[in-house]
Specification:
Strand 6 and strand 7 form a beta hairpin. The radius of gyration is 32 Å and the shape is globular. It is built from 45 helices and seven strands. Strands 2-3-4-1-5 form a five-stranded parallel β-sheet, sandwiched between helices. Among the domains are: 175 residues, Rossmann fold; 204 residues, no CATH class; 71 residues, Serine Threonine Protein Phosphatase 5, Tetratricopeptide repeat (Alpha Horseshoe), CATH 1.25.40; 56 residues, Arc Repressor Mutant, subunit A (Orthogonal Bundle). This is LuxR family transcriptional regulator. InterPro entries: AAA_16 (IPR041664), P-loop_NTPase (IPR027417), Sig_transdc_resp-reg_C-effctor (IPR016032), TPR-like_helical_dom_sf (IPR011990), Tscrpt_reg_LuxR_C (IPR000792), WH-like_DNA-bd_sf (IPR036388). GO terms for molecular function: adenylate cyclase activity; ATP binding; DNA binding.
């Protein structure tokens, strides 16, 4: 198709593919069917070839949407030999996904990382142009892998051009690609195009073509051959085009017509397969020349071994133009040809089914199992749903729908899962099936948006399932209910109900799942027993990253933030290695939250940033909100108030409508810290007071024990001592029944500032604070300030100096400056601290440089952070000048990770 009126867009694409040595990212070209996306891309491909780029292509096909990684296989086929050099986990995942080796179920993120590494290695030899057309029709697994790659090619010599129809969903829409919208052609350009393709049209016919095509380039080129002088009813554009193409197909001679029908139904486009199936239908051996009439009428293009349709609308028009019986016979013939490919055969047999067929249903079930084994959850869902449609037995139909729904939950397909559960409930369900349908959808967003009454319902369901002799599913349901107690406040009655069910489950008290449930449901009443179990379990970290993850979260609930950091830090490497990026941001968010509370800002910065990135990428808005709120808190502690405010607003926006309490609590904490460091103590008290008001959505009962010291500090300065006394009295009562370390540390601080004196400050400083440097620094600062106000300047200096040095080391800039001001007032000069090496880096750069300082290679860092090794190398090249180093060997010293004598 001539590129009339697309000069500006072509110029933009040509510039994009012009020498991508430093990395250019990509573009998503979108527009309605026939608007010229493919023609524009073809011109860009030609420009890329002239510029010396290697081109890799994949095209989505509607018939292949149910075949996991079909498009990725198409894209990587020319370079798959390079996969032999991939790290073993990536190589294994990629081979399994592409069906080229027997292996365990591949992880989607490892497949994405393998594709990225392979493409990056190929691009090192010759820059790449990746063309992904009709991504709205790609199988979901391939589209996800391409989106993964698209987010990470900003520093690679790789350009990605993708095309998508207007209004169609695709993971590529959220992959950070720039957007190019193709609209219809203006009238003068449309007229020029029609005159170029059909110069002999009469004035009447020309006017009609221009009117009906309405600027759509495909219509402008194809309608002239079908237009008549007689008036016809006006139809939607695609319907008019499909009718045009259908008429063109109907005019073909036999057996070209039968062969074209088979080609339209053959998702792979193989010429040999098409000829074999069509030959079976017409009863003779067919040669490629049989399709010559279809080529002449511009329905198809015929290459050496492949039949391709000139436009997807042409492909879809053909089956719509024949009877149901003709389609059925064609599908059955293809199924026979694909006898050695059971998945494809099963789908064609299903398409040919005219009613219930249990044999076909079983074949589809097997196809679903194979798809899942290759990591194709979306393909497995589609196969199971189709199996349900042809199921003869109602109970098996429901089982297949619920299995499909469970897979949809695991792959994040909420709308699909809801529809499948709804379809299952439309029939008669067994008690077991009703229980499954009841808890299945609860995994989305930890139930944050659900009615609170749902928590008690889940508790009763768990008990019922346990009574039926299924303790593991019961524990899973109970865990889902307990998680809701973190995000929302269900009330004491519901908590007691949950706890009663937990106590009656036939599970050992030391079972990590039960320990975590108790921590979530009864963070104070069960804190003693939970803390004992956690300390024993802490000796076995690293065995199961998922267990470590929820034990880290459980530790956070009972005020044991040191254990929370320990468990979460143990969970993260295992989750990375397994490619479980859905769970990783949960572990990272808890780790970042905990490290900030412990004062380890330098370590928390990259962890919080990565948690936010992966939470956003995996569609977990509330974990994204929590990680962003932690970033706001870090910015406030560092004295970057503008950044703190922006991040707090972003986190609050994510959480407010759903009332996600942990996010809102952390937001208020960040606001209070920022206000305090700016000297706005009234505002700070108002912000922090909300954390202790049960009626406020920012009050999270388990987390409030961490905020007593902050509240006490600003309450005294804001003249809100009476209000502080009330809150401390309430917390003192709570402290009688829980050993939560954070609560007791906070109360010792509050007592000291409420009734300041040497004894109370010395008592607080004499407590076990080895793992709590920020709290120790806060005590020294408060003690030094009080001593100075008592005109004991000499005594105050040692405490203020310790506070300054502590906060400098921790990167808590606002607090360190406060200590400096107090020292000057106490008669001691205090030099300003220059920026720490870590503070010169972005969180992303800090993640990379810390791993490099530990001795990891670029490839190992890439595997850890889900980046290509070339991207890691590019970042290190930029980082070295920032730190004033010239080699990896100097990084430890630059980051302060070695002592002076070791340096």
């Amino acid at each position: 198709m001539p590129l009339f009126g697309r000069e500006a867009e072509l110029k933009d694409l040509s510039e994009l593919v012009d020498g991508p040595a430093a990395g250019c990212g990509g573009v998503l070209v979108q527009g309605e069917p026939g608007v010229g996306k493919s023609a524009l891309v073809a011109e860009a491909v030609a420009a890329a070839a002239l510029g010396g780029l290697r081109v890799l292509r994949a095209t989505g096909a509607e018939a292949e949407r149910n075949f996991a990684y079909a498009a990725l296989h198409q894209l990587l086929r020319p370079v798959r030999a390079g996969a032999d050099t991939l790290p073993a986990p990536q190589r294994s995942a990629l081979w399994a996904a592409l069906g080229l080796a027997e292996a365990g179920e591949p992880n989607a993120y490892l497949v994405g990382l393998a594709a990225l590494t392979l493409l990056s290695d190929e691009a090192a030899a010759k820059p790449l142009l990746i063309v992904a057309e009709d991504v709205h029709w790609m199988d979901r697994e391939s589209a996800d892998a391409l989106a993964f790659v698209a987010r990470r090619i900003e520093t690679e010599p790789i350009v990605l051009i993708a095309t998508v129809r207007d209004g169609e969903p695709s993971p590529l829409r959220d992959a950070g690609l720039s957007s190019m919208d193709l609209g219809r052609l203006p009238g003068d350009v449309s007229a020029e195009l029609v005159d170029s393709v059909a110069p002999g049209l009469s004035s009447t016919a020309r006017s009609r073509v221009l009117a009906e095509a309405a600027g759509n380039p495909l219509a402008l080129t194809e309608l002239p051959s079908a237009v008549t002088e007689a008036p016809e009813p006006v139809l939607p554009l695609t319907e008019r085009l499909e009718r045009t193409f259908g008429a063109r197909f109907a005019g073909l001679p036999e057996p070209a017509r039968t062969t074209s029908l088979v080609a339209a139904l053959n998702e792979a486009g193989s010429l040999a397969e098409t000829l074999a199936a069509a030959g079976s239908l017409v009863g003779e051996v067919l040669e490629p020349s049989v399709l010559a009439p279809a080529v002449e009428t511009r329905l198809i293009d015929l290459e050496a071994r492949v039949v391709t349709f000139r436009h997807p609308l042409m492909r879809s028009a053909i089956p719509a133009s024949v009877s149901a019986e003709e389609r059925r016979r064609a599908h059955l013939s293809l199924a026979e040809v694909f006898r050695g490919q059971p998945d494809r055969s099963a789908w064609h047999r299903a398409a040919a089914a005219t009613g219930a067929d249990e044999e076909v249903a079983r074949e589809l079930e097997h196809a679903a199992d194979r798809a899942r084994h290759r990591g194709g959850a979306t393909a497995a869902v589609a196969a199971l749903e189709q199996a349900a449609l042809v199921s003869a037995d109602p109970e098996r139909r429901a089982d297949r729908l619920l299995r499909a729904a469970e897979l949809a939950v695991e792959s994040g397909g909420r709308e699909t899962a809801e529809r499948l559960v709804r379809d299952a409930r439309a029939g008669e369900l067994t008690p077991r099936q009703r229980a499954t349908a009841s808890w299945l959808l609860s995994g989305f967003e930890d139930g944050v948006r659900e009615d609170l009454s749902r928590i008690a319902e889940l508790a009763r369901l768990a008990e019922s399932v346990a009574e039926d002799g299924q303790p593991d599913p019961a524990m899973r349901i109970l865990w889902g209910a307990a998680m809701r107690c973190f995000w929302a406040e269900p009330g004491e009655d519901t908590r007691r109900t949950l706890l009663g069910v937990a106590d009656r489950l036939p599970v050992e008290d030391s079972d990590p799942r039960l320990v975590a449930v108790a921590a979530y449901v009864a963070p104070f009443d069960r804190a003693g027993s939970v803390l004992r179990e956690l300390r024993e379990l802490a000796a076995a970290t690293g065995a199961d990253p998922e267990v470590d993850r929820f034990l880290g979260s459980a530790s956070l609930q009972i005020g044991a933030v040191d254990l929370a950091a320990r468990f979460s830090a143990a969970a993260a490497p295992g989750l990375r290695a397994q490619g479980r990026l859905g769970l990783l941001p949960r572990a990272l968010a808890v780790l970042a939250w905990s490290r900030v509370r412990l004062g380890d800002l330098a370590a928390a910065v990259p962890v919080a940033a990565e948690a936010a990135q992966f939470a956003k990428e995996t569609g977990q808005p509330f974990m994204y909100g929590l990680a962003t709120a932690v970033q706001a808190e870090i910015a406030a502690l560092r004295g970057d108030h503008k950044q703190a405010k922006a991040l707090a607003v972003e986190a609050e926006r994510t959480a407010l409508a759903a009332g996600a309490r942990p996010v809102l609590a952390t937001v208020q904490l960040a606001k209070g810290i920022a206000a305090s460091s700016e000297g706005r103590f009234d505002d700070a008290f108002a912000d922090l007071r909300r954390l202790f008001d049960p009626a406020d959505p920012a009050c999270q009962p388990a987390l409030r024990v961490y905020f007593i010291a902050e509240l006490a500090e600003v309450a005294v300065r804001a003249g809100q001592v009476d209000a502080l006394r009330e809150i401390v009295a309430e917390m003192e009562q709570l402290a009688l029944k829980t050993p939560a370390p954070a609560l007791h540390i906070g109360l010792r601080f509050a007592r000291a500032v409420l009734e300041p004196g040497d004894e109370l400050f010395e008592t607080a400083l004499g407590a076990e604070l080895d793992g709590w440097p920020a709290e120790r620094g806060r005590l020294h600062l408060a003690y030094g300030e009080w001593l100075r106000r008592q005109r004991r300047a000499v005594d105050s200096r040692a405490h203020l100096r310790t506070a300054r040095e502590t906060f400098d080391a921790l990167g808590m800039t606002a607090w360190a400056e406060r200590a400096r001001r107090e020292l000057r007032s106490a008669g001691e000069s205090s030099p300003h601290r220059g920026p720490d090496a870590r503070e010169k880096l972005t969180p992303h750069e800090l993640s990379i440089v810390q791993l490099a300082a530990e001795g990891l290679t670029n490839r190992e860092i890439g595997q850890r952070l889900y980046l290509s090794h070339r991207t890691v190398g590019t970042h290190l090249h930029r980082i070295f000048p920032k730190l004033g180093v010239s080699s990896r060997a100097e990084l430890k010293k630059a980051l302060g990770l070695v002592s002076g004598k070791d340096g």
